[in-house]
Write a structure and sequence with these properties.
The protein has 793 residues and is α+β, with helices and mostly antiparallel strands. Helix 2 (402-408) packs across helix 9 (582-613) and helix 7 (547-562) crosses helix 9. The longest helix is centred in the last third of the chain and has 32 residues, at 582-613.
Length: 793
Amino acid sequence: APNKVDKKTGEFSPRRYNRAVGIGRKRLMAAGCLALAAGCTGERGPSVLTADVPLHLETRLESATVEGSEVPRSLPAPREWSFDEPHAEWKPITPIDGRGEAVEARHVDGALRLTLDSGNRIFADRLLGGIYVELGKWNRQDWGYVEVRARTSDRMHRVGLEFNYTEEDPANAFPFYTTGDRAFLVTDGTTQTYRLSLDRPTRRNWNGPWTHLGLWFNTQGGVESATLDILSVRVVPKEAEFAVSPVGQLLERRQPPDVEGGNAPQLRALYMHAPGRVSFRVRMPEAARLDVGLGVLRADDPVTFRVSVTQSGGSAETVLEELYADPWRWGDRSVDLSRYAGRTVDLALDADAQRDGTVALWAVPTISGIRRTEKPNVIFYVIDGGSPDYMSVYGYNRRTTPRLERIAAEGAIFETAYSNSGWTRPSTASFLTSLQHSVLGGLRNGRNPVPDEAPTLAELLHGAGYQTALLTSNSNAGRMSRLDRGCDLFRDAGVANFSASSVWLHENFWDWREAYPAEPYVVHFQTTDVHNDHTPLVPFAGLYVSPERRRIFEEQLERVNDVPETDEVGIREAIDQLGIDPLEFWTTYRDLHDETMAHQDHMLGRMVDRLKALGEWERTLLIVAADHGVAAGAWDYRLMMRDPPPAHVYHDDTGTPMLRPGVSRIPLIVVWPERIPAGLRIDEAVSMIDVLPTVLDLVGLPMPEVVMGQSLAPLMLGTPGWEPRPVILDAFEVNDRGELSGRIEVVDGRWGASLLVNADPDVPESRRRPSPILLFDLWNDPDCLDSLHDRRP
């Protein structure tokens, strides 16, 4: 049952929860007491856990004994503004420096209706508005997140937070000191709740009181007017989400808000309430150690963390005790438990604080010892938007990937590999489950929730004792699809420069390995170095584009982006209108892409060099791939440089098939030294949906009940079991009628076909397909420019 405000005291109370689960809590405490008693009498006690592979204590709470850790009786009350009645204290924001007008705001149908029009075109291609309320002098440490209930049927884009009104030192076009968390808006007219964290100012942090809360919202490009209805705004206390149970687990983020590299990753954490104890009975492995991160919610509410070990018939020995008070960083600690090797002990995690109910966080408490498994570490490296057409390892006539050439020479290169879909969100969900997007249910309200019944790669390997991480700078490859499931370490947030994503993601990885060095591990990288907005780093900046030519291009690109996009005016028409030489423009864009590819190649090479120096390379399975080709992430430069380019190259809502190489042909390289023969080049048509079965097969784990791909191991190892089959691509969403709407495509040898299912009736006539089904001869028309659907029915 949900928590509520006590009507008499006005305090936020979990009383309804306590009544609902009181019996269960009493049984849990009674079971804990009985377990401790049984341990003393020699009768049956808590189950004994082993750590032959890394033992993640936060996932084994069913085997734990819990003492104390009581949910506090009262918490600070949330503050809510419900717009079923007017709230005059919420005011529209006027942009600074005369950049635009304040949004029109009026009370309509139980909501605050915010209308954007041409007066709100603060930036060239989007409308922007905002509202704010004065808070007084709040302590931000008391508060965890803002919940915004809203609805829209227009082409809105995002909603986000602003903090502390100021006209003297604003962070952007609005007069606020800093900005905060943001979320994509759902545009199907349904009422949605957006949770925005208060722990992540994105521009800069501040000391002192929290005086103003602002909400900004904007449209997609090319919109002339739009409305957004705000039904309510609710500010929730930081400890509210921990009041659902005495102990539990969740993903928690720690980071100083002004870190240059953007948002820090999250770690899976065990939470408890002080004073409290969670203990486990463990048979300690040889060279045993406990790796854990200590965390608190507030600097003014420190916690004393204590780890103790009790041997049979002995007294408790304290092996770690520390008062911790930093709410922004995990206190990474490693505890030597080797003196208990081979013994069954009770390991207890204790927390104490001055205030009863204070939340204590233990990040991924992991017991490990000497590596006793032959299972390899797995690095699944996805270059988001990476196309083999622009990689020298696949024959591109520019040395963009010399390091990858040397790496690939140690394993297998798949010459004809395809993504599952035409863009990141459906593709990633599919290859991490080995289930087609239509089977997963398609996009719902713009999101892609993977059903609980479909286990992900991280969940499957975590269940087998792997330490697991997913590190990406593309939010489409993360929580929008619930892909944080099964991850000890998780990041799906942006970075300061998307073309430098590999720098930050690699740093996250090595920090994690230093704090949690146990093996085996699996990490899924999904970098955005080559995806779009190419901003190459030194020394790769200037490799193919001179500084002067880059300056001219950036000016041209800004002018092109200032031209409003319509159904009749795309990027090529804008270039023609401005008198820009299209060949020079697209050549420069391609060359900047190639500079970012060279940087990506360098970073991947450095990672392999470090693995070799650490002696880990021989026990590492490396898979390098992509989620889609370059045309889905930016533009298919090879076709855009034609004069004129094919019309449907850039009008791809319904016309361009996903099976066109620029959209879905990807690199796929698999290396496991001394296990996979070196120097293989394999011509069979394969799919990213085959990756999950391949990993499970190679590491010796069973397949899930249902997979739609097949293991590539027989092709690499020369063993039976590979079945040639057509490649399937699909991408669907649930339309207003509750139907799956989208495309399903087949690549079968020489032929490729694309079927449009439940087409959107609102697509303009100029962008509609000539037929629901398109047919291509891939031998004679590899770019899929001439459909044969009429001539070869």
